[in-house]
Amino acid sequence: MRLMVAAPNIFSGDAVGNHCLGIARMAARLGIECKLFAQGFDAASKQVNAIDDIFSNIGAEDTLLLSHSIFDPNFNRLIALPCRKICYFHGITSPQLLDGLAPELADLCRKGLEQVTQFGIFDELIVNSEHTLAAISQLVTIKNTWVIPPIFSDMPAFQQHSPYLSRCYATSVRMISVGRVVPHKRIEDAITLLHGTRARSVDAELTIVGSLPDAGYFQFLIGHARELKVLNKVHFSGALADCDLFRIYQSSDILVITSLHEGFCVPVVEAQNFKCGVLVRSGTAAEYLAAPEETFEMESDIYPDTFFEALQNLRKRRGSLNWMDECGDRTNTLLEQCSDKVWRKILCSKRLED
């Protein structure tokens, strides 16, 4: 049996792409031959093959693993292949969050959700979180489902164990936002949180880490920060190499997640591994990765008192042995849920009969 992994795009540095590459490394550790196929991929990559090649390479004894997170133009051809089929579903952003801001992307999300209703064709379904499982259960029923976080212990972020420098009572607060700078991430709300925190006599600054694919949205964020008179305290770093991202985690106090949709949220786990504090907007899968006291509710453009309370509490606790142990325990628990042993149970199990 060979494992044939297919996705619309596999780019290193992208969460879905990183996960596909991690699957290939995991398969190699299990002694399973694995090939990756995508329509879009890094030009210099020697690991990824053109998607059309999968149809002439795959056999009845192979296993197809489809990585799904948005509309896949090759979906119907892939699910028609006469082999064992597994889907890893990352979740799809609600189109309503993108309408008016990114209409083309919203349309792709709608088409992707239509494909989700056909997931019953798969022998097994893997989802990235209980939150995603609850959402998909409203659309389709699949006999065998698994919840496996989209991370691997050999990812660079989890190989770093540098000394922690306590800043728990520092007078300033270094806030960061990590992830693609796109409308449903609600980066403007992170800027609003910065403004409200500074209005409460806390010297805070915000670094926004992530690619900037939407020029119009980027200009909107600049205008929002200027209107709130905090533009000089907002820094856009763009996408960073791992080593630079890790340094930012290590030197920052708080990762702030204001997104309205997260199927998982890898930056939360990375931040905890580097002992960077985390504050997460409630309502997405990201809140289940943080402690209850590290979440807050927020209406757009309204600074919540719950955020400031959580921030002050985190500043006091951050650096204590108990807090650091809690961060480590949460990370270790997640990594156990996606261990090679767990993957072996799925990939090496007998193909389900129709």
Commentary on this structure:
The chain has 354 residues and is an alpha/beta fold. α3 links the parallel β4 (63-68) and β5 (84-89). Helices cover 36% and strands 20% of the residues. α6 packs parallel to α7 (215-227) and α9 crosses α11 (321-337). The longest helix has 17 residues, at 321-337. Strands 3-2-1-4-5-6-7 form a seven-stranded parallel beta sheet. Strands 10-9-8-11-12-13 form a six-stranded parallel beta sheet, sandwiched between helices. The chain is built from twelve helices and 13 strands. It has helices at residues 15-29, 54-57, 75-79, 103-116, 130-136, 187-199, 215-227, 242-251, 266-273, 305-317, 321-337, 340-347, and strands spanning 2-10, 33-41, 48-50, 63-68, 84-89, 124-127, 145-147, 172-178, 203-209, 234-238, 254-257, 277-281, 295-296. The mean pLDDT is 92. The chain folds into two domains: 2-152 and 338-347, Glycogen Phosphorylase B (Rossmann fold, 3-Layer(aba) Sandwich); 157-334, Rossmann fold (3-Layer(aba) Sandwich), CATH 3.40.50.2000.
CATH topology of the largest domain: Rossmann fold
Shape: globular
Largest sheet, strands/sense/barrel: 7 strands, parallel
CATH class of the largest domain: Alpha Beta
Total domain count:
2
Oligomeric status of the shown chains?
Answer: single chain
CATH architect. name of the largest domain: 3-Layer(aba) Sandwich
Under CATH, the homologous superfamily of the largest domain reads Glycogen Phosphorylase B
What is the number of beta strands? 13
Q: Which stretches of 5+ consecutive residues score pLDDT under 50?
A: none
Strand content: 15-25%
Distance between the termini: 19 Å
The strand order across the widest sheet is 3-2-1-4-5-6-7
Structural class based on helices, strands and sheet pairing:
alpha/beta
The Cα radius of gyration reads 21 Å
